[in-house]
Amino acid sequence: MHGFANPARFLRIARWLMPALLVPGLVMALGALAWGVAYAPPDHLMGVTVKILFIHVPCVWLGMAGWSTIAVSSVVELVWRHPLAGIAARAAAVPGAVFTALGLITGSIWGRPTWGTWWVWDGRLTSFLILLFLYFGYIALADAAQRDAAGGGGAGRIPAIFGLVGAINIPIINRSVVWWNSLHQPPSITMGRSSIDGTYLWPLLIGALGFSLIFGGVVLARMRMLLAQIQTEARLRRKALG
Amino acid sequence: MHERLDQWEFVWAALAIGVVGMLTMVGWSLFAMIRAERRRDAVRRK
């Protein structure tokens, strides 16, 4: 793992890996959305609004995957002091927050025709809204820690601790529909099992894979951006000092 | 009182917000990356 700790080696890999993730990801995600909208039949209860599934579910999965990435990277940063782990965690925060916000918005749009309301304060929706606020807090904290580190301070580990503590919310989101009464349906896909018909399942899985590739490509692009900012600041500081 | 909702309007709204939001994030991230790397290269050359 420490073989990838060298930023120059990471940049060499990221230069070809980023478009290799983004291009097929966009093709798969947009293709699966078109497939689902054009060919998936209306559901006998939800009607054509079932097609919102193909955008809502990947966004929700990636909202949670974003924080899982932050948590895993935070462990690697705290335990092994991997120099790129903190950068990977910071890079995952913005796409994670965007997918979380899109999951909340598309879910709310889906709720209006199926539940008769845009929003309910139940366990699933509330814990997912808390995830969005956790992202906002992490992004603000990580920005402050980077400014502190540039000034020679030692606040670099605080975002990693916050990232680990916030991970408690992920199993709460996952189990919320089992623990509490909710308008939200129980899990349709669990480990190795699905109650969704194949006509919905395949475009959903292909779309989710496409969105995941896009997420990976965006994280790599943001890691390259953060590395470039750190390198620029370091060079400007060296010049200013002497 | 019964309210008639056109379900397709909700489908198109969700898809439009999801796709535009996702594409904006991809474009913004690529733009920010290119700008940061250009600035780093310009500082190196000085």
Helix/strand layout:
The complex is a heterodimer of chains A (242) and B (46).
Chain A (H helix, E strand, L loop, with lengths): L6 H33 L13 H28 L4 H31 L7 H28 L7 H9 L2 H11 L9 E2 L2 E2 L3 H44 L1
Helix pairs in contact in A: 1-7, 2-3, 2-5, 2-7, 3-4, 3-7, 4-5, 4-6
Chain B lengths: L6 H39 L1
Features:
heterodimer; A: mainly alpha; two-stranded antiparallel sheet; 7 helices; 76% helix; 2% strand; B: 46 residues; mainly alpha; 0% strand; rod-shaped
Radius of gyration of chain B: 21 Å
The backbone outline of chain A, from C-alpha atoms, is globular
Distance between the termini of chain A: 35 Å
Structural class of chain A: mainly alpha
Number of strands of chain A: 2
Order of helices and strands of chain B: H
Q: What Rg of chain A do the Cα atoms give?
A: 20 Å
Chain-averaged pLDDT of chain B = 92
Number of helices of chain A: 7
Distance between the termini of chain B: 72 Å
Helix content of chain A: over 70%
Give the overall form of chain B: rod-shaped
Number of strands of chain B: 0
Question: What is the H/E order of chain A?
Answer: HHHHHHEEH
Give me the oligomer status: heterodimer
Note the main sheet of chain A: 2 strands, antiparallel
Helical stretch tally of chain B: 1
Helix content estimate of chain B: over 70%
The percentage of residues in β strands of chain A lies in under 5%
Q: How many strands, which pairing sense, and closed or not: the largest β-sheet of chain B?
A: none
